[in-house]
Amino acid sequence: MRSTQPPIHDVVKCPACHLCQFAAEKCRRCQHPLGITYFEAPILPFPAQPRQTREASTRFLVGKLIRDLRRMNGKTQASLARSLNTHRTHVCRAERGQILLSFSTILQALAILGVDKIYLRFRNPGAIASINRSPAGPVYALQNVPERALS
Fold first, then answer.
1. Superfamily of domain 50-119
2. Would the pTM of this model clear 0.70, i.e. be above it?
């Protein structure tokens, strides 16, 4: 099937032979496992639901993601909490979907749990994400977005 969206090719380096290649399960040269796992967290369209229901769904999705990643990494709630400089009960409540962590705390937790890259996929073909290289690092900007959409 033909798609208007180009596929994302993630380039990784093999830890054994240092070959740069597109991500796969094993290195194409030495067959060493690359140790990369992909996880998709779909952002579902929220139909006409009450705000409380939407927020609860988001809290549950984020909490489940953090719990699953923490367990995959063999970390305890206490060790993750120490790394985040917070209490274990705070992590516990977030994992159960009782509270929603701030965006910066979510990113910090994901980095601690081994997530090194997050992709955003846009459905609107008019909003094209591009990377501008600068001395400060990559800067993400939207191009071809009508000015009225940003105000």
1. lambda repressor-like DNA-binding domains (1.10.260.40)
2. no
